[in-house]
Amino acid sequence: PRWAAMYAGLQELGVANGEDLKETLTNCTEPLKAIEQFQTENGVLLPSLQSALPFLDLHGTPRLEFHQSVFDELREKLLERVSAIALEGKVEERYKKLEDLLEKSFSLVKMPSIQPVVMCVMKHLPKVPEKKLKLVMADKDLYKACAVEVKRQIWQDNQALFGDEVSPLLKQYILEKENILFSNDISVLHNFFSPSPKTRRQGEVVQKLTQMIGKNVKLYDMVLQFLRTLFLRTRNVHYCTLRAELLMSLHDLEISEICTVDPCHKFTWCLDACIREKFVDNKRARELQGFLDGVKKGQEQVLGDLSMILCDPFAINTLALSTIRHLQDLVGQDTLPRESPDLLLLLRMLSLGQGAWDMIDSQVFKEPKMEAELITKFLPMLMSFVVDDHTFNVDQKLPSEEKGPIPYPSTIPEAFTKFLQENRIACEIGLYYILHITKLRNKNAFLRLLPALVETFSDLAFSDIFLHLLTGNLTMLGDEFALEEFCTSLFDGFFLTACSRKENVHRHVLRLLLHLHHKVAPAKLESLQKALEPTKQSGEAVKELYNQLTEKLELRKPSPAEVTETPSMELPLPTVPTPASR
């Protein structure tokens, strides 16, 4: 029976248990006398207690209740004593006492009432004997019951078991990030990059991992190894974010055992301050440059780790925003990009971050070579766009003469499109420039550059982070959605070119329409509703969003009496019943 197994350890210690009582009662002639004798031998052996027990009987207090309360009291005292021993006297002596106590009590580890004491002793031992750890590891219930301090000792020599514990947390982390990117709340003020680094580090997964690692360098290294492997396998940049957040979470707790041995610590700490400000100022730029220049011969491998820290989207976002700001300043100063050391450093770090996957994959640890044309051709071209805006704005304010107003430049240099297709850094900066002008409500510049986004380096313009930011910034141009021309350029010319082959784009367009449908020209809205209808292959998320949109549009439809016929400008399409009206 189950209870017999629970008390099996008592016999080894020479303490009578239920089996002994059963045997005594089976083989005796006078059961009552036998019970009395068993009680005397195994009760609390205090002479003064013998006369007090009958007094409890008079009050109808069962002996079990009495013994249980004495037991609970003693266990509490023992737990307090164990915790006190762990802190007093010389190190060797206190651990010797705890080891002796563990040796005596371990056989009772499966007894629910004694288990907390055994677990407490193990928790306070920096090195639990190997044999005991193996017994705990082999028993699911014991493993579950033991403290994280004991589990760390088990994990550090069992990477697979540690991996099983960490894996669901990493999955949860990625899912949380994706949920934010696809959130139905679209805003220019609150987006993916809004929470401060310190707030992000309070997240459940980072806190749990920090707790699991404690001060154990070996476990920290294992987690970093998992993150590198997953980053290589999936190319998912959120693993890079977690790499930086974990280090900074240990930094917050001042765990010097780990921070001092991670060669990226000071670099990450400095970059973290930049991310908090969403800008790399001159002083911090010098510091970051010092770390990069200080990588010594024979230690190049640290570049792999630094590149992963710089590949964190929060780092890329900060570097790209700073680059755009620098370019605007250069326009005002009449200075070329190649003459700005600060700008060159930002490009160097962007380049290192964007090259993280290739570096870790190839295991060739050297900084990627920067293409000269990026600095001599592409960035000046972006600056010329800024100049175009200035010129146009000044022109608008001048009194118009006979020649009429000068139109906004509508063409884009072919070289710009080519750069966005072939150069990763140019593409990243170009996309951030487009986000920048959208946020400024610069419709002219937006429509001019939008065609360049249809084909970009490794489809970056259709990545979740860019589309999340773009949809947020497009709310600034909300009123433009009433114009057919604007909608055609944005939807037909950009979004719909990728919807059928990229499910994520389909989701982002539906998110945008859920937010702005009331601003879109009705005829356009109808054709968009048809174009965005999910196919059999569409995932649940797309179907769910589409249904939400359909419901919203149904609510907006005027009653039949209010509808007046308007001549249709388009060729008649065969009517397809919408899912709601079937």
UniProtKB/TrEMBL annotation:
Region described as Disordered: spans on this chain: 556-582
Any single GO BP term: negative regulation of transcription elongation by RNA polymerase II
Pfam families: COBRA1
One Gene Ontology cellular component: NELF complex
Matching InterPro entries: COBRA1
Name of the protein this chain belongs to: NELFB factor
Organism listed in the record: Nycticryphes semicollaris
